[in-house]
Amino acid sequence: MAPVILVAGPPCAGKNHYVDQHRTPGDVVLDQDAIGPQAFNAAVAQLEHERPGARTWVIRCCGGATARARFAERIHASDVVLLTPPEDVLLARARQRPQPHRHAKAVRYWLDQEARDPAPEPQPRPMTRW
To answer: What is the pTM assigned to this prediction?
Structure first.
């Protein structure tokens, strides 16, 4: 079975760039912005019922740890990559996009969702004594 990797984060976080840097030939990329909502929803529905034949990258904002975990479970993600640049970086990138106010509003909305339901902090590994 090929892995399904969810790449999540706020708008302007660099999700597409991350996938472009890590994908290999033959990988499938599902990005609603690129393929449109109908095609994206159809592809997600297919992932719910069958494993893909190729490694599949799913790009989605998914603000809030609970929503992200539910979506990852729904698509049977083998891994979740969460990109979280600082707010000032996100807003600077939003200003470079068409309709900067719309992108800035989307960034703030995602940050608000994440603040209400944050991802758990990584647990430190116990030290091993030699």
So the answer is: 0.89
